Inverse folding.
């Protein structure tokens, strides 16, 4: 099976590359190319289309994205080009070649006001540019490939891995710096969701691909939700990172974490205050057991250098 992977050097892309199943021919791409990677700028729709037409993949795994949530507020055109136009270009090309698209999306397509876990079929209502551009990408895929079984939109949340730029690595650095000097840090406690390990997310992505190739009576739904199990605030996760890091010998003394409100930590982009997603259908149809976010967090921290 031939798979075109975008964002290979990102945290999810690296996990997908590391845990790819046997028998997969991976066409790995990233913006800068190099070291056996194909160069692909996701802001260039024509380049996205050409890559599909050239390689004729069975699947495009679109793990690449513009993910700088706050910076997107000042770069809306670039964010839309990467998050909205690239999925459209992939979908149009795949409509010609007969391949399928796995579009990785986000909990930020919801406004976070309902206070209960979001179902895959619920209406999108993003708050900021990042969420709006990811929603545009979803809509583009649905417009081009809707009515077929040739795409899956997989929404996830709070993605963290042992490599790359993410909350877990940032908090570990802050715990080391401030804990060593008896200093504290403030972390937002009124935004609730669930962390997702790149390892468990990669497993879900590959299971989607494998499931599509196996004889089955039940087709894959067009939209699925995937995160690790449980619920947490950013404050909860920050505290857990300090505790786990101390247990694993990654630091001597964690910093004291103080809960603060969103209003006390102003940033350019609005975040959903509650973005927990209902992943029941994905776990059932993919036959994957849930991993509690703290257990998954421990596993990814064990893999940190």
């Amino acid at each position: 099976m031939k798979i075109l992977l975008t964002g290979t050097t990102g945290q999810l892309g690296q996990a997908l590359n590391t845990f790819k199943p046997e028998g997969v021919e991976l066409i790995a791409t990233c913006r800068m190319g190099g070291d056996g990677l194909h160069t692909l700028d996701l802001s260039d729709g024509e380049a996205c289309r050409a890559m599909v037409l050239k390689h004729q993949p069975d699947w495009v795994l679109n793990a690449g994205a513009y993910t700088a949530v706050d910076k997107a507020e000042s770069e809306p055109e670039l964010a839309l080009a990467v998050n909205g136009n690239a999925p459209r270009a992939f979908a149009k090309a795949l409509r010609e070649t007969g391949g399928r698209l796995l579009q990785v999306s986000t909990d930020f397509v919801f406004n976070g006001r309902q206070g209960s876990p979001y179902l895959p079929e619920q209406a999108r209502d993003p708050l900021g540019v990042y969420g709006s551009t990811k929603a545009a990408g979803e809509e583009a895929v649905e417009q081009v490939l809707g009515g077929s079984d040739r795409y899956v939109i997989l929404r996830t949340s709070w993605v963290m891995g042992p490599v790359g730029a993410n909350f877990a690595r940032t908090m570990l650095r802050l715990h080391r710096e401030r804990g060593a000097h008896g200093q504290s840090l403030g972390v937002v406690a009124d935004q609730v969701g669930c962390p997702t390990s790149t390892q468990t997310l990669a497993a879900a992505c590959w299971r989607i691909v494998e499931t599509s190739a196996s004889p089955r009576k039940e087709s894959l739904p067009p939209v699925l939700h995937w995160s690790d199990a449980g619920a947490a605030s950013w404050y909860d996760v920050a505290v857990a990172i300090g505790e786990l890091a101390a247990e694993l010998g990654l630091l001597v003394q964690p910093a004291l974490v103080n809960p603060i409100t969103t209003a006390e930590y102003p940033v350019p982009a609005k975040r959903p205050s509650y973005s927990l997603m209902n992943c029941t259908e994905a776990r059932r149809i993919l036959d994957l057991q849930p991993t509690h976010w703290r257990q998954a967090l421990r596993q990814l921290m064990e893999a940190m250098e």
Observations:
- The chain has a mean pLDDT of 95.
- Residues 76-97 form the longest helix (22 residues).
- Residues 2-161+195-228+276-290 form a domain with the Rossmann fold fold (CATH 3.40.50.720).
